[in-house]
Amino acid sequence: MIVSNATTGPASSRGMDVAIAALAVGAIAGITFAATGEIDGWRWFHWICKPLTTLLILWMVVRTNPAVSTRYRRWMAAGMVASLAGDVFLMLPQDAFVPGLVSFLLAHLCFIVALLTDSRFAERPWGMLACVAYGAFNLWALWPSLPAALHLPVMVYVLVLASMGGQAVVRVQRHAMDALTNSAQWSVAGALLFMLSDTLLAWNRFRFVIPLSGLWVLATYYAALWCLARSVRGSR
Length: 236
Hints:
By secondary structure, this protein is mainly alpha-helical. It has helices at residues 10-33, 41-63, 70-91, 97-115, 125-142, 151-174, 181-206, 213-233.
């Protein structure tokens, strides 16, 4: 079922995009310039802007004029809510990596369900296999530096993340020439950017320090969420 009720026009959509970009820049600047190991003004700026950016992207999903089914939009919104929880866990002063990992695991499961509303799981297998192979390679490279307690959680997470990316590739192939083409293109861009963001986060945390890691991780993360939100709108 395609929903046709208008909720936001082009002008308000552009205004929302500008607000999302401004908050994302604030979150990135806050973590980039925060003093290491200290709670200073920049860190507070990051703590304020980071969840607000995700909240505004969630609002974009809820209020946009959809080109997809109601079920697709609801599961995308659920994924954004889980991502918001992950944002909060990962920015806490104490180490809450595992709760954050579980939150984003749930987010990816929600995104997979959304993608499955108009495509079958791995119906075109090569894209799925490529994403799983990418995830397996990263897991193999990071394995020696992963704490033993994280072996199973990270393995499950990588499998789900790769499946989300793979299903987005399946969906864009499934809707190459129909009314959902633009939506599928946005969703595959978002899914692959999410994989890139999580790759950068994992390598920075477990393998070696990436210069300005906060910039690269958050820039790709917010771009991923924004693209997934745009998949609900489905415009070019």
